Amino acid sequence: MGRKGLVAWGLMLPFWMKASWFRKYGYRQTDRYGNQVLLWKPFASDALPPRWIRPKKKPQTAPNKVAVTAFLSGWCPAQNMVFERALRASSELGGKVVFQWIDTLNGNTFLDYGISDALFIDGKEVRTGPPPSYEKIKRAIGKRVRKL
Fold first, then answer.
1. Is 49 domain-assigned?
2. Same domain, 75 and 142
3. Number of neighbours of residue 54 by Cβ within 10 angstroms
4. CA angle 34, 29, 123 (to 5 degrees)
5. DSSP structural state of residue 109
6. 118-121 and 66-72 beta bridge pairing
7. Which of 72, 75, 89, 67 is nearest to 139 (CA)?
8. For the residues of 54-70, what is the DSSP string, one character each?
9. CA dihedral 41, 13, 53, 31 (to 10 degrees)
10. Residue 33 confidence (pLDDT)
11. CA distance 115 to 34
12. CATH assignment of the domain containing 99
């Protein structure tokens, strides 16, 4: 079909989407961002390896409030659960929490942030793989609320 290579992403985690699985089938690491690995299998000698899109913007914080920012593309069921849990916990913790949803299914928004799916509390990324429970998310937000 005229393509010069195939790219995939894997994780440096031992249980899901393991980057090591792709390496076993001839993919090479071309870039890494956190625990995410971009893997590349060239078909042509002049193929250029891809790179991750780097973030240009960061989640906003809110004065005298806890800012919960959820980046959501909608394609990942696990991230959809994280989004719903964070939204519910934010609403239950009252007026001291500001919840912001950033729709990364919009290509320009994705390019601005370089993030497809993530959760941030006051600008700090929350580890979402495997998806944290509702209780864990609520505790993390509540901890920040108590520090106000």
1. no
2. yes
3. 9
4. 15
5. H
6. antiparallel
7. 89
8. PP-------TTSEEEEE
9. -50
10. 84
11. 12
12. 3.40.30.10
The tally of domains found in the chain comes to 2
pTM given for the model:
0.80
- Model confidence pLDDT, tens digit, residues 90-134: 999 989 999 999 999 999 999 999 888 999 999 999 988 789 999
**Inside any domain, residue 78:** yes
Domain that holds residue 109: 66-146
Is residue 120 domain-resident? yes
For the record, the structure tokens of 22 come out as 């792709």
Residues 136, 144: Cα–Cα separation, whole Å = 13
pLDDT digits (tens, 9 = 90+) for 35-89: 889 999 999 999 999 998 888 899 989 999 999 999 999 999 999 999 999 999 9
Q: Which amino acid is at 18?
A: K
